[in-house]
């Protein structure tokens, strides 16, 4: 069994539209950050570091750096412990961004449960019969078909090949 990842990190910026950023986090979720809403919540005004980001041209200069969102065009001056002044890009911690974001439910084209259920019904099998053939339980088959659980590739292969008698073919586009 895989361990839960405790510290959220952004692994990919998927899409930027206006002041919205769709990101993939290290737990595999795609999440939406609505910065128009966030900046309103924070009460961003002219005196704040975030103010230049209200301009979409400045906002879209966002990059992924150190597993979080970073704007090199917005400079923050901080003092190091030794008293030296440092200039850093504006960043928001990935843990904060995770909390501020909303999960995007993946469309059915990315879900395997619907595929397994369709193939099972086409083969004329009950969940119990498929479970027996693939060495698992009816309860687990039900959870998979309803996209209520993650599925490891080896289990997916076992259900498709041993349970359904089909060949698993995976493509990456």
Summarize the structure.
With 173 residues, this protein is of the alpha+beta class. Helices cover 32% and strands 25% of the residues.
What does this structure look like?
The protein is elongated, with a radius of gyration of 22 Å. The chain has a 4-stranded antiparallel beta sheet with strand order 1-2-3-7. The chain has a 3-stranded antiparallel beta sheet with strand order 4-5-6. Strand 1 (10-17) and strand 2 form a beta hairpin. Helices cover 32% and strands 25% of the residues. It is built from 7 helices and 7 strands. Helix 5 packs across helix 7 (153-163). It folds into 2 domains: 10-103, NE0471 N-terminal domain-like (2-Layer Sandwich); 108-163, lambda repressor-like DNA-binding domains (434 Repressor (Amino-terminal Domain)).
CATH topology-level fold name of the largest domain: NE0471 N-terminal domain-like
Give the assembly state of these chains.
single chain
What sort of overall outline do the alpha carbons produce when their principal axes are compared? Answer: elongated
* Beta strands, count: 7
Succession of helices and strands:
EEEHHEEEHEHHHH
The strands making up the biggest β-sheet line up spatially as 1-2-3-7
**Reported CATH architecture of the largest domain:** 2-Layer Sandwich
CATH class division of the largest domain: Alpha Beta
What's the number of structural domains? 2
The major sheet is characterized as:
4 strands, antiparallel
- Gyration radius, in Å: 22 Å
N-to-C span: 28 Å
Could you tell me the mean pLDDT? 90
Structural class: alpha+beta
State the low-pLDDT regions, or none: none
